[in-house]
Amino acid sequence: MDLKFKVSAHISRPVHEVFEAVADPAKLSNYFTTGGALGRIETGATVTWDFHDFPGAFPVEVIEVVPDERIVLEWQAHEGTIDMPTGELPSVPGYSTRVTMTFAPVDDGSRTLVSITEQGWRETQAGLLGSYDNCMGWSQMLCAMKAWIEHGINLREGMYK
Questions:
Q1: Dist CA 9 CA 18 (whole Å)
Q2: DSSP secondary-structure letter at 1?
């Protein structure tokens, strides 16, 4: 068994605008990293994502970037479920998962299909629960990105806390 998932959403904006909403830390901080993002997403970089609703900043290793097409990241895995009242993440040091984001133009380039795949959890009940939490988080990120890019609305604020 390979624990992985894929979530997707259509954003009614051209690929470059949607890609930049992830790659540019100032833009990402508007709808996803409520505590801020540090560092532009570029191949070989380590960026930091901070969330006010979960304690601490998370280092994110940027493995590959193909502008307007793909972003590949790795970050520390967590297993089990997130404690929603405290935001505590049961992380596992030295163990990472891989996130691949793809950006594809649709409808003659007026819209973008964003797909996010994450994989690499241990094949345990705790790993499965961790994958469920991240699947929920990435699905919510896509919804928040769509609302922010298309309508200027921040859906993430207060979502988890």
A1: 11
A2: -
